[in-house]
Amino acid sequence: MNWTWFHKLGSPKWFYEISGRLLPGLSIAAAVLLVVGTLWGLAFAPPDYQQGNSFRIIYIHVPAAFLAQSIYVMLAATGIVGLVWKMKLADVALQQAAPIGAWMTAIALITGSIWGRPTWGTYWVWDARLTSMLILLFLYFGVIALGQAISNRDSAAKACAVLAIVGVVNIPIIKYSVDWWNTLHQPATFSIVEKPAMPAEMWLPLLVMVLGFYCFFAAVLLVRMRLDVLHREARSSWVKALVAARVGEGR
Amino acid sequence: MGRVFVSLIVREARLLCRRPAELANPLVFFAIVIALFPLAIGPQTSLLQSLSPGLIWMAALLAVLLSLDDLFRSDFEDGSLEQWVLSCHPLSVLALAKVAAHWLFSGLALVVIAPVLALMLGLPGRCLPVLLGSLLLGTPVLSLLGAVGAALTVGLKRGGVLLALLILPLYIPVLILGSGALQANLQGLPVAGHLLWLASLAVLAVTLTPFAIAAGLRISVGE
């Protein structure tokens, strides 16, 4: 297998060119998928036989929760790449993805609690899933806070990488122990209503929304990474040439 | 290798014994926090007894966290850490020795005074073996995980709050299992499952965290 493309990714200039070409496609895909999924899910999917129309928040809640979890795994993966291959772009990706992950976790928590009001009759219960999502949010806060506390960029990225890896090892343990705590301490006053096997008219828009969220994440991540790359490489010749060319076009 | 480990522990022990106040402070903190709970939630014996497992574990967790803030600080400031990084011995083993020495003094002392405070909260005497067992298995995990955070934040000026922010979410499994064991014991339920899980967490922490601590120290020293 040819690994040249992987090593090339280490070059900020090459990344800037490639991401510039990928970005329009990703943004359009994200916009189309999100619009189609939202319209389909909110207007055309049939109402749930138990929850009526309130279940439609699932089309925001579930993709956000998916992303929240996969972004943390991505943090650890980029952390390993950054520590092992000393690839600067992995550092950039880690630090730029963390805030997006925190927002997705927050969106999942907020939509979940809004959904909980009509379904369980309360905004918050110390349910195992809710609690572990809240802990995930705290883990994101830890990574972001550590990255901002260390002024040296390289050390900050390495420290975040170590923390993300330790966190990922811990996540299954936390998840398992919280599940156990919940079954031991909490009588199931409110249990998440067992999801009936969804008909295709319901899960197809959900699939579209999940894909749309992933495209949206990729596009936002690329934009943030490009900005950060420009910031870090501000003194290099290719950025200066780029800026000069842009200024020339403007005139 | 073994000689270095032992001599490092002896060095740490000597250093800690010369500054007894630093050893005593987390213990006093532990006692004060325990004393604050009855003042906050009322002196009813039955209420305190049912809450005591959680209270003791919360206080122990905070005391360990407080004691870890300056675990590597003096070594960082006087340059010993740099010598460690440069030495021919693996940094992870040196870090493990450091944490082991720290736990032998502050962690064990905490375990020793915990029964007295637990009895004051109204925990029945029959629960004491489980209290001691869970603390003996749990506090090393707290020390080792906290050392990862301490290694990452040692170079920062105000690392204390940041350390808590980084490490407290990772403490959750120990808190759940430790207080769960006590709670189960209080209600007369079997506790072997909790204690075995705590033991496996301890084994996992002893084997894996030294590498994370070493990586954290390298980053902080290299800055």
UniProtKB/TrEMBL annotation, chain A:
Key words, A-Z: Cell inner membrane, Cell membrane, Cytochrome c-type biogenesis, Membrane, Transmembrane, Transmembrane helix, Transport
Domain Cytochrome c assembly protein: 13-185
Cell compartment(s), UniProt: Cell inner membrane; Membrane
Annotated transmembrane regions: 21-45, 57-85, 97-116, 128-147, 159-178, 202-223
Biological process terms in GO annotation: cytochrome complex assembly
InterPro entries, A to Z: Cyt_c_assembly (IPR002541), Cyt_c_biogenesis_CcmC (IPR003557), Cyt_c_biogenesis_CcsA/CcmC (IPR045062)
GO CC list: plasma membrane
Record-level Gene Ontology MF annotations: heme binding; heme transmembrane transporter activity
Pfam families: Cytochrom_C_asm
Keyword Acyltransferase: no
Membrane-topology descriptor: Multi-pass membrane protein
Family: Belongs to the CcmC/CycZ/HelC family.
Job description of the protein: Required for the export of heme to the periplasm for the biogenesis of c-type cytochromes.
UniProt protein name: Heme exporter protein C
Biological source species: Pseudomonas matsuisoli
UniProtKB/TrEMBL annotation, chain B:
An example Gene Ontology CC term for this record: plasma membrane
Single GO term (MF): heme transmembrane transporter activity
Bilayer topology: Multi-pass membrane protein
Compartment(s) where it occurs, according to its Swiss-Prot or TrEMBL record: Cell inner membrane
Alphabetical list of InterPro entries matching this protein: Cyt_c_biogenesis_CcmB, Cyt_c_CcmB_bac
Keyword Repeat in record: no
Pfam families: CcmB
Transmembrane segments: 21-42, 93-118, 130-154, 161-182, 194-217
Record flagged with keyword Transport: yes
A biological process from GO: cytochrome complex assembly
Function per UniProt: Required for the export of heme to the periplasm for the biogenesis of c-type cytochromes.
Protein family: Belongs to the CcmB/CycW/HelB family.
Protein name (record): Heme exporter protein B
